[in-house]
Amino acid sequence: MFSEKMNKPIGICISQNIVVVTQLFGHCINMYELEGKLIKSVGKKGNGEAQFYLPHGLDASDRNNNVYVCDASNNRVQILTQELKFHSMLGIDVFKYPFDIKVTSDRLLVLDRSDLCMFVFNSDHVLTKRLITRDRDYNIIMSDYCSHCVYVFNQEGEQIHKFGKEGQGIGEFYYPFGIALDNTGHIIVGCQKNTNYLQFFELILHLIIHS
């Protein structure tokens, strides 16, 4: 199968019995039949439409068969049609180094290596959540942009804590976006709209200070 020589194939997905592969150092996307025959190759090194710079993960949508490609060093996701023609771009002002992606029926999940976080978009490509990776106990912490709260999940993905509600008071959030951990394990949350302070929480989820 796949006798065509590739330059570090790194991402792969299958859509409508077609295999689509990213070539990291080839800065391109290849399309194959299931038997391995090359159908077409798209892209070259660059930052224009359907050009790539170290493309990583990719996935295809079951709704429209569009292919979503993590164009990592161009800090964006490119959306291509099933024929690998340029459709649109996503996250130019959001991502720093998107390296993996998953498309579901109602959301789009993008992992960003530089920010060590995951971005969640709805089916209309509106950013709804931003997740950091893990705390000292390997719990996953997520700010929910639209629900104005923060979730904490364990390693199995089970929700173990939720805190915050819509508002601009202490312990409340108004479109929380930035979220991080300091070296003592405090959760720091910043909101995108109409607030001028950061809120700090201990891992036991008690507010200790806002500044």
From TrEMBL:
NHL repeats lie at residues 39-83. SUPFAM superfamilies: YWTD domain. It comes from the Eukaryota. One of its GO terms (biological process) is proteasome-mediated ubiquitin-dependent protein catabolic process. Keywords: Repeat. InterPro entries: 6-blade_b-propeller_TolB-like, NHL_repeat, TRIM-NHL_E3_ligases. GO terms for molecular function: ubiquitin protein ligase activity; zinc ion binding. This is E3 ubiquitin-protein ligase TRIM71-like. It comes from Oopsacas minuta. The lineage of its organism: Eukaryota, Metazoa, Porifera, Hexactinellida, Hexasterophora.
